[in-house]
Amino acid sequence: MVSSDISTASPRKLEGKVAIITGGASGIGESTARLFVHHGAKVLIADVQDKLGQSLAMDLGPPKIVSFVHCNVTSDSDLENAVDTAVSRYDQLDIISGDLSYAYKASKHAILGLNNNLTVELGKYGIRVNTISPYGVATPMVTSGMQMDKKAAEEFMSAAGNLRGAILEPEDVARAALYLASDDAKYVSGLNLIVDGGHNHNHPLFGATDSLAN
């Protein structure tokens, strides 16, 4: 079910677009999948968590709207299969959104350098490339690694941040991805959109969303 804050968002910003969301079965990826579907996109959820991904796809809509494919982002063949699957099922591909930090075991600066290089290389084809650098989000993977429940993890990360009175949630990162994937950002490429409440120094890159639009 789409949460109330997302369901009130309008207008539909991704009508007619097709998106692959890697890591889309849980956490930030799940929130992004929900928001993209709500905004009219056809979505292929690509993840190694088969049961979660299949369950989410069924929850979000019929196969003609949203479906799942097994995909390990460190595998070139899996990524190629995800792209081929999206094109065969939905006849096109407009957006790829996902976490690059798992695919590239490198520093934040190296990932941002990759973003800049791809911006130049792919811009000639009309493809935009952007990243999102969020502060800590209490996703299941993060809370498990911290050995804390969600509330404790949120309190811990909030106390370490600069912006008081607000907690970064997966939906906040999903909204940033929505902007970058939509026509609202049709001339935005090479951007590192920092979603961290002003805490943009000396923290790890928790996620990098790579949006490729037509």
Automatic annotation (TrEMBL):
<protein>
    <submittedName>
        <fullName>Uncharacterized protein</fullName>
    </submittedName>
</protein>
<keyword id="KW-0560">Oxidoreductase</keyword>
<comment type="similarity">
    <text>Belongs to the short-chain dehydrogenases/reductases (SDR) family.</text>
</comment>
<dbReference type="GO" id="GO:0016491">
    <property type="term" value="F:oxidoreductase activity"/>
</dbReference>
<dbReference type="InterPro" id="IPR002347">
    <property type="entry name" value="SDR_fam"/>
</dbReference>
<dbReference type="InterPro" id="IPR036291">
    <property type="entry name" value="NAD(P)-bd_dom_sf"/>
</dbReference>
<dbReference type="Pfam" id="PF13561">
    <property type="entry name" value="adh_short_C2"/>
</dbReference>
<dbReference type="Pfam" id="PF00106">
    <property type="entry name" value="adh_short"/>
</dbReference>
